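Most newcomers find our protein records easier to grasp once they have seen one. A learned vocabulary of local backbone shapes supplies the integers on the structure line. An example says more than a description, so a record of this kind follows:
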Amino acid sequence: MISILMLPADVANRHACRHAIYNGACNLTLPMKELWLAVYIVDAILVFFVIPFAMFFYEGDQDKSLGKRIKSSLLWVVSTAVVCALVLGILYGVIGKVDFTVRHLASGTTSFPTSWQFSNNQPCIGNTARQCSAFTASVASEKTWTMRTTFPEYVVALATIVGSVLFTIFGGVGIACLPLGLITAFIRRPKAVITRSQYIKEATELGKKARELKKAADGLHQEERGGAKGRKWRKNVKAVEKELLQLEEDVNLLEEAYPQGEKAETAWAFTVLGYLAKFILGIIGLIVSIAWVAHIIIYLLVDPPLSPFLNEVFIKLDDVWGLLGTAAFAFFCFYLLLAVIAGAMMLGLKLVFITIHPMKWGATLMNSFLFNVGLILLCSISVIQFCATAFGYYAQATAAQEIFGHTLQSLRGIKYLYKYNVFQIGFVILAGLTFLYYITFNITTHKRVLNTKQRPKMAATSTAAAASSIMGTRVVSDINSGSSRFTARFGFGTKKAAPKKAKTVISDRPLWFPGAKSPEYLDGSLVGDYGFDPFGLGKPAEYLQFDLDSLDQNLAKNIAGDVIGTRTEAVDAKSTPFQPYSEVFGLQRFRECELIHGRWAMLATLGALSVEWLTGVTWQDAGKVELVDGSSYLGQPLPFSISTLIWIEVLVIGYIEFQRNAELDSEKRLYPGGKFFDPLGLASDPEKKAQLQLAEIKHARLAMVAFLGFAVQAAATGKGPLNNWATHLSDPLHTTIIDTFSSS
């Protein structure tokens, strides 16, 4: 907080002597450069020494005495200090210099006139002299001055580089998720209080889930006492901690939806007002975030800048009242720090490849809190450097700009990162990706639900809690004992089969045609079911009339003809790898074919467009090129003939299809998941998984229609899709599908 507010103080300090009437007035103001270095040296000590010591102390073995834990922590910190000192000393001795590019300028002299002949009509310098000497100087006049920077400035510079990487990630994500998270919370707010019967039902179902997690925590605690604290144990502990955070969130959700106590109505009123405040703050934050991103693009990424933008706004506010512009400047700097904190909190729960201690309001462990404090302190240095650069016109001639502007951007080895705006570009890209993520997956698709069947991670009430010394936080002690996910992960108990879901017809759902009537067997349970089956091809066996045994895949027929009888009973046939379906023409079979064909169509559509765009070869002529020029990849010949490649493809795809058919679980056949098919864990949440499944089937259907259009275009015109599109755009009124078919 102090370091962020130092920058507005630096600006105000510079303004204090701006209108002074005597020389040397600025020497009587605060020594901001020394204060900057002092603040950042303190930050560096906190980040690299104090916070690591506290983390080592809290994460040490609790069974050891206080003295041993302090000694162990000091050893780790001293080791870290030695390594940091060696690295800093070597880097400072080798490349701790700044390279300033200067230009030598020289000009002639003119004798002072002895008469009064010069006037406005006849100036001393002729009208033809329009340029400064710097513009007419030769390239050879450029020189490089090399100077050694001070060690404190070098430490601050390296800390800024480390912080800039974190700032780019956290700040880019946070500048979008901070306002959109508030708006999303308002959109997904509970609209009304649930009834007591609903609450009891939820609490009863959720209460069964806590025991399994409590059992898992007790088992891990016993393993800890037994000394079996290996890699697997630590992995399981982190998994439990992550689940605890999710459970805490669900506890709050249930308590919000059913406030209790004597002041339940007051609590609900404050809940409504709280969400309304989030919405208002989210709108304000969205405006500020858009202003920040626009300012970065207009002022930093465009050379020369299109406009001073926010710099000019601050200057005009200063003209209205002396401190108004400084206050607005401080607000934008502080908002950027809040965005970094919001990004750290979001990525702490969502990031997959890098383990970051998660943070959550009211449920953050001490070591996680210390870890993120260190990250935010590192980022705060970069936030100040970023603000000093972004508002360089407003913050000119300040001590911060002297440190971060000239020294940092001329430091040998790292100046190119700032010369080419690497961090600013990364910041804008991550902000755009986060905005698209929120619009696609959070704001427009997600809904808050309390149904435990739809929300399997729902927590119990806060009264069903027990202390767990192993995690350092409370464990909800009322979790469903039938949670096979915990059973399989930690090995406590046996895995139970998932209960069969009863089909429920969803009456209020969109259909493929307004006013259409959905068939009885298309009840909306399948993802992307819009009731489309005009020919009745997807009728299950109990709806079909048949003349042969439909349980035999090799004999089943779905044809019109002589009808022997109508199937009325349902037989549960056993699936095998070679015959995974009891019916040739069934809903599950059609869904699998549709999804697989759609995935191939998406790849084919992308491939057809990409190849034509990159090489100019249309997709229908790609095979001809291979036959004429031989097999190649990216212009390099392959040591295989076309026939060999075909056999390789047949064997590889055949093996993959056989392995897929060996999976008898219909859900896993369609969505295998795992680290190979879902490395980012996007489908870990059931709600997100449902939305992703719907998005996939929609894109698959569009891709199949698109590639069918490509094929029709190729047959009619002989051109590729991009060529056809360009032809249509050149004359959209006379180059249409009707004109194409009428002229062929």
